[in-house]
């Protein structure tokens, strides 16, 4: 069953002096419980696409369906993690994490307990009452993840969640996130420009090209890799093979755009 | 290792001492400046180097101060001016913030009002004094309006532009949870701009004093602004200096209070 379905979605940014066609005819389907990646150079419209799926931007053409219903009609919760953590600097970590329930006017007590439990699970028990400034990049990103997960969204949108982190932290967080999402059987869309991350974490990769943003090619991740943790997956032979194929495709894309 | 730490601690203590000494030195110079100003004023006035009639002298001002303190007229005039200033400050600032919020709320409104705000901002508000007095009648009400009107437009402009400078991704986070416009304002826009809102408070303290004193110049029969004009008319410059010093003192106090408020409200940033 199709969980999320995009049908010929286009998006234009308009300014006084012209417009940018950020997306053109993007169509794809994401089955329930699966993890897909959108891979592409920066400026190819990945963030725009996520904002559209999150319902923050309206597509200029095309439709989006969630569980076979139009996006606006769907009551489904979507968790959206932005490119940076965007924790509110004037709130403590716990208050930041409880932002979603507060906006959605959920029961406070139960949510607070749940938040503290999640923060503890993710290794942030010591900084629950600290302010975001005093946390490292990795800790902030984890706090932002808890904020996203707390409202229990069925669909998760992750916009380059690990791009600002050092390599070691990034590998650890990949494992953590991948484990959490599998455990709760979430459907996820990950945006990244890191080939390795896309392969290690997802079931399917959509390679995008820029100007205008389009889906250029789709790669299925071999079943052997899918069931490994991202860290283990990186060591698998098939990982390397797929990496090379994607790498070549990206290069040929680049030379096409240069020669044009 | 503990040896090393001892040395480090010593270095730190030296640093602390230096900071303290520096602070004491600064304070000393401030006091010296303060005292020499009054001594110079007193001496030059006593020996006729400056016109006694115009510049009065600290001792005369002091005598007047004590006399007025005892007969209650100090408190009487001070009370009126303070009340008008505080009221003008609060009304002007709040109205400015509310206006800024409505501009943020409605893009259409902000586009329509834009040229009017520019003109109103450029207009010297005290020039409206006579009109306000004619419209509202001579009395507290006009004077408070003067104190408020002088700061409301500039507050609106400054606060509105800081609302617009808030990183829209904070709003995006809230919208992804399905936040309403009001929730976005309450949870992101307002708290993010609190520091710049409070810095307009500081400017407005000064502005509302200007508005109120000018207002009292124009109509009042009581208050510090009235005393200044009255002293000028009857050539009692001791009274003028006395009122001026009171205005300076209480304006400084109000400013200090706002600074305290700032420290309390934005301590976590
Ligand atoms: N708010 C915006 N206003 C105007 N143009 C934008 C805006 N955001 C993105 N764009 C343009 O749309 C294109 C896609 O941007 P984006 O979705 O951020 O790409 P990515 O996330 O893949 O780097 C880029 O050419 C960018 O310049
Ligand atoms: Mg992006």
Automatic annotation (TrEMBL), chain A:
Keyword Amino-acid biosynthesis in annotation: no
Name of the protein in its database record: ABC transporter ATP-binding protein
Domain of life (superkingdom): Bacteria
Alphabetized GO MF terms: ATP binding; ATP hydrolysis activity
The keyword Transmembrane belongs to this UniProt entry's keyword annotation: no
Domain ABC transporter, chain residue ranges per copy: 4-235
Keywords noted in UniProt: ATP-binding, Nucleotide-binding, Transport
Species for this entry: Aquibacillus koreensis
Automatic annotation (TrEMBL), chain B:
Record's bilayer topology term: Multi-pass membrane protein
Family annotation (Pfam families): BPD_transp_1
One example of a Gene Ontology biological process annotation: transmembrane transport
Domain ABC transmembrane type-1: 74-258
Top-level taxon of the source organism: Bacteria
Entry similarity comment: Belongs to the binding-protein-dependent transport system permease family.
Protein name as catalogued: ABC transporter permease
């Amino acid at each position: 069953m199709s969980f999320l379905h995009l049908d010929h979605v286009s998006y234009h940014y308009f300014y006084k002096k012209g417009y940018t066609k950020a997306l053109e005819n993007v169509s794809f389907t994401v089955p329930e419980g699966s993890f897909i990646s959108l891979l592409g150079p920066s400026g190819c419209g990945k963030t725009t696409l996520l904002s559209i799926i999150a319902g923050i931007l309206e597509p200029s053409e095309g439709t989006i369906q969630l569980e076979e219903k139009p996006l606006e009609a769907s009551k489904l919760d979507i968790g959206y993690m932005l490119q940076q953590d965007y924790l509110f600097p004037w709130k403590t970590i716990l208050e930041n994490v409880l932002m979603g329930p507060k906006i959605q006017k959920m029961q406070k007590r139960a949510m607070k307990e749940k938040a503290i439990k999640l923060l503890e699970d993710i290794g942030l028990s010591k900084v629950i009452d600290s302010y975001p400034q005093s946390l490292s990049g990795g800790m902030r990103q984890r706090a932002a993840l808890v904020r996203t997960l707390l409202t229990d969204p069925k669909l998760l949108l992750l916009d380059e969640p690990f791009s600002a982190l050092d390599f070691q932290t990034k590998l650890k967080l990949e494992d953590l996130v991948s484990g959490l999402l599998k455990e709760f059987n979430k459907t996820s869309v990950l945006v990244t420009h890191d080939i390795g991350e896309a392969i290690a974490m997802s079931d399917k990769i959509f390679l995008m090209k820029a100007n205008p943003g389009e889906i250029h090619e789709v790669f299925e991740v071999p079943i052997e890799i899918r069931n490994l943790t991202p860290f283990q997956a990186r060591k698998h032979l098939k990982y390397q093979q797929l990496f090379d194929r994607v790498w070549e495709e990206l290069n040929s894309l680049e030379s096409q755009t240069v020669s044009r | 290792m503990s040896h090393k730490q001892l040395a480090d601690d010593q270095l730190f203590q030296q640093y602390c001492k230096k900071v303290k000494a520096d602070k004491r030195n600064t304070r000393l110079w401030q006091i010296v400046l303060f005292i020499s100003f009054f001594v110079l004023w007193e001496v030059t006035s006593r020996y006729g180097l400056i016109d006694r009639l115009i510049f009065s002298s600290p001792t005369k001002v002091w005598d007047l101060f004590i006399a007025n303190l005892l007969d209650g007229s100090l408190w009487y005039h001070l009370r009126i001016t303070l009340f008008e200033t505080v009221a003008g400050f609060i009304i002007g600032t709040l109205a400015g913030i509310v206006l800024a919020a409505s501009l943020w709320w409605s893009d259409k409104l902000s586009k329509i009002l834009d040229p009017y705000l520019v003109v109103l901002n450029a207009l010297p508000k005290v020039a409206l004094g006579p009109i306000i007095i004619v419209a509202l009648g001579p009395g507290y009400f006009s004077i408070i309006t003067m104190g408020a009107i002088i700061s409301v437009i500039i507050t609106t402009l400054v606060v509105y532009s800081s609302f617009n400078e808030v990183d829209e991704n904070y709003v995006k986070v809230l919208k992804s949870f399905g936040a309403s416009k009001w929730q976005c304002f309450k949870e992101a826009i307002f708290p993010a701009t609190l520091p710049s809102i409070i810095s307009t408070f500081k400017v407005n303290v000064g502005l509302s004093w200007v508005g109120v004193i000018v207002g009292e110049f124009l109509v009042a029969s009581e208050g510090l602004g009235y005393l200044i004009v009255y002293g000028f008319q009857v050539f009692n410059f001791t009274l003028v200096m006395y009122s001026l010093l009171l205005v300076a003192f209480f304006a400084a106090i109000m400013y200090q209070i706002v600074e305290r408020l700032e420290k309390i409200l934005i301590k976590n940033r």
